[in-house]
Amino acid sequence: MLRNFLTVGGWTLVSRVLGLVRDQLLAALLGAGIAQDAFQIAFRLPNMFRRLFGEGAFNAAFVPLFTEKMTLHGASAARRFASNTMSWLAIWLAGITILGELFMPWVISFIAPGFGAGSTRFDLAVTLSRITFPYLLLICIAALLAGVLNGMHRFALAAGAYVSFNVVGIAAIILGAHVFHMPAQAASWGITLSGIVQLGLLYVATRRADMKLRLQRPVMDGDMRNVLRRLAPGLVGSGVTQINLTIDTMIATLLPAGSISWLYFADRINQLPLGVLGAAAGTTILPVLTRHHASGDREGSRETLNRAIDYAMLLTLPASFGIIALAPEIMSALFGYGRFTMQDASFAAQSLRAYAIGLPAFVLVKVLSPAFFAQGDTKTPVRIGFGILALNLALNLSLYRPLAHIGPPLASSLAAMVNFGLLWWLLHRRDAMRIAGVTMRRLLIMLGSAFIMAVLIRIAALYFIPDFMFWRGWTRIGVLGVMITSGAAIYLACLQISGVARVRDLAAARRRMQNPAP
What we know:
The protein has 518 residues and is mainly alpha-helical. The protein has helices at residues 2-30, 34-55, 57-73, 75-102, 104-111, 120-132, 135-151, 155-161, 163-180, 183-208, 222-237, 240-252, 259-295, 298-335, 342-357, 359-373, 379-403, 407-429, 437-464, 473-498, 503-514.
């Protein structure tokens, strides 16, 4: 499981780093104003579908059933099941895409209530959203193909295809700025074109894996009804984080211009560890838990959850504390260029700290949710999900006026903590989750080590680089890299001294992954 976890996490990290480059271009060329706000709204809706289907609900509903088909009935039955599911998905999403294109002004009025119909920002958001909206059709079908590959334990092929999203996006922004002189429109076209590329790559990968799917006349059989029963509640159960972020964006449209941009760039930094660690854990743990549940191995399920929590928190805790300590330096070094001012970077850093507070909870929700889905229980996460959505909305409405751009991300973080707490409590009550004593000890040491690291690097930032935000761009990036590297060294030294993660043990784990047992 660790090998698959790191494989998916590695590809996701490459994608996130390229995404960071893409966001830097957007910040420099569009700044934090009307065009940026309109583009972020146009990107929010299809991007929510990408994260839900690419990393959440669809995998939770489809992968266990596909894996069961492969295991019990063979590749031919699994192929027929996947082809039928893909055909239904294509018809349903094509209908939604057409309706979305026709009624886009009403959609924008709903997800951006603060834009005001007829304003420049509103009209631009409608135009850009019509360009990006077909992406949801493309990426959801691509997610099905990725689920097929994950079910066949070909995690690298599925994860690698998503890198193309940012490669195409970067190319589109550069061409839009320097050739067509319309960066917002070009960035929007880049989203839809990337969906075509991702779908093509995954289609080729499934054919090479001897899983040749095709569109057919869809049949509503028992298998498809089972998918729908699991998918509908799973959209809320595993997608609460994304829906909460969408609520954050809706509330942000009620704040001054630029607030949407500050929240977006803060969320992008927060999504780097969340996507790498949370998505990797959720993707790789689900097939393993499904097999344990099918064989009645309760102890194996508990051990798998313990390992997943340990692996995820080993890197999530230092990421969370490090982001809180260096948020101003991170935002100014990565985005403080061109039209994105230092004041924009400062406001975005405040939002980033509010998101980072809840980062461990965000990741743990992605780790614990598959424990329910592996058992075919989608009702419990959806019930919790509805409650969390209501809580997040109530917190947003309570906090956005007194805290402005800090309110929405803080509301999401608090809601994620409650979400994690409820999932943990229910799994423990069912005897499906039992933290071993050694795991708890390791978690406490990781927490203490991350805190020590954060205090030391914050002191260094305050006393040794007080004028950091006014330095030259490459100098800022270089110094930030040194500080992050120093923080990592401090954290690893604490783990080495405590015995939680010795260098020789990490080297041995790397050798095992390079030479896995047959």
